[in-house]
Amino acid sequence: MKLLARTTIIFLLYASVVAVAGTFVYYSVIRKVYYSYVDRTISRRKLRVLKALRLHLRTPTDLAFWHRLDHNVEFFPLRAPGPSADQIRERLMYNELTGRMQPYRQLEASVFFQGKPYRLEIRTSLLDSQELLGRIVLAEAIIFGALLIGLLALQHFLARRLWAPFYQTLEALQAYKLDQDQPVELPASRIPEFRELNTTLTQVLKRNQRVYRSQREFAENAAHELQTPLMILRAKLDLLLQAPGLTEEQAGHLDSLLAVTQRLTHLTRSLLLLARLDHQLFFPTEVVDVRATVQAQLRQLREQLSAADLTLETDLAAAVPIHINRTLLDVLVSNLLINAIRHNEPGGLVRVELTPRALTVENTGRARALDDAQLFTRFSRNADSTPGGVGLGLAIVAQICETSGFIVQYSYPAAGRHALTVLFG
Amino acid sequence: MKLLIVEDEPALITSLVSYLQGQHYVCEVASTFADAQEKMLLYDYDCILLDLTLPGGDGLDLLRELQRQRKANGVIITSARNAVEDRITGLHLGADDYLPKPFYLPELSARVAALVRRRHYNGSNLIQAHALTVDVLARTASVAEKPLTLTRTEFDLLLLLLANQGRVIAKGAIAEHLSGDAAEQFDTYETVYAHVKNLKRKLTEVGAADYIRTVYGIGYRFEPGAAA
What we know:
The complex is a heterodimer of chains A (425) and B (228). Chain A is an alpha+beta fold and 425 residues long. Chain A has helices at 3-55, 60-69, 127-174, 192-241, 248-279, 290-307, 326-342, 372-375, 393-404; strands spanning 73-77, 87-95, 100-113, 116-125, 286-289, 311-316, 321-324, 349-354, 358-364, 407-414, 417-423. Chain A folds into three domains: 3-149, no CATH class; 192-279, Helix Hairpins, CATH 1.10.287; 286-423, 2-Layer Sandwich (Heat Shock Protein 90). In chain B, 43% of the residues are buried.
């Protein structure tokens, strides 16, 4: 559940509890206030009745007459004087106006009239006042409801506004890639918590990027720094070759050294290319005809093909223009072809098929499918590896495909047939 | 022929000088940016070998300066920076060639020879070595007036051999000269053997059997007329 929804629900629960409880409390408070008002009124009326008893009333008939005029005042003769304290209570009585039993508030007091004890009852109808009470409670409930709904809406709206920086930060983080060049731009916020969050995040991301970059640069610099010693090594070997009186044994050692130097050279160049592919996001692209590239690379490798006694089969579509960096396409095609030649068997076959959507290079080889998870891993070695390679050719292919938005797949179409397919775009 | 070697690595300087002097070039050395700048402005060279990363500045700035001064020196950039952008920038700034380190000395020699030839072009562009005559422009060769029919690859091979006369050329250097970067991915030299064999056969047919010597299977030496 979203944070917003969760806070809203909790708020809603609390608000309804307060609203329900509040309504009851409010009702009872209002009721109490009202009753005490009624009681005060009724007590004041008693004082007026007592004054009338003293000054204006003469005979018990007057008492009955008064009751006829005002049903809410009634006298009952008592044999002995009643309790001296007044009593106020609620009772039901028949009401002539409505023709039904109605609640009344009634005050009972002991009075003396012409020396005889009487019980005086003064009543006031609660009919209107109960209705009033109901109305008040209803109005209260409506106000409370409106307040609740208003608060909810306000809270929802505010939450969206208040949390906006958070969602922007989240969005920026989701779009973030470790190898991107630009630093992450997190939105500025006036709220200290968000500001702190963004500052911390920015620092962490910057540190990560710095570490990542320095590792990438380390690989590149290391390969780079190796070029000069390699150059010196090569130059010295070239000079050593010229030494007069070179014996066959010495020549043999030199030969091995030259071969190793060559391998080192190839290794450092491959590492440099990989490092560049890793950290350069953008390579300028142009429209290149893959068919022309394949043909050019095949021409270059013609001699290696015939030296390894391989048959070349081609099935190339007329023209396959794609958007790509020309150098990268050259390396891609060349690595695929060289791979097919290197891992072939004498008298084998290299088949190159180009369609508008894909380039497939197939070669004969071991009668066992390869582990395609390992195939594109850097420096992956297995029992089948041909000695002499540096184990980066297909890693470079995979990296170029990733950079260019291609997909490379390995398949084992028939026994002893290995195929690598590059799907364009 | 006068060369300026702009390079800051002492061990490499001695190697370059030693090899190129053996090919009868006069070599001068500049090992800092300022040094190179001064020499470039004061003297004329047939060819400048220019390293890009120098103490005191970027080699590309030297190129810019040369371009401003309209100095007509041939320039070969020899750099460990193998970035395509550097290559393009360098060639755009008037460099004639770009040779990424590490390279084989015979390859450098061939590039220098080709550059010097282009700059001193006097209509014919013939190379004479003993009885062998090579017309670089027409891409033809003959030995004592008898024409050699060479394939493109064989002709390129012959040019490499000619630029390194009397020197042992490692077969790896030949492979790289003929197939470029792809060569370093193969550890066999079948194609080199095949081409050298064919060239030798063709030379033998016109009576130049001893021009190419095999050196213990490690490389080849081209010495026209050595036996004579």
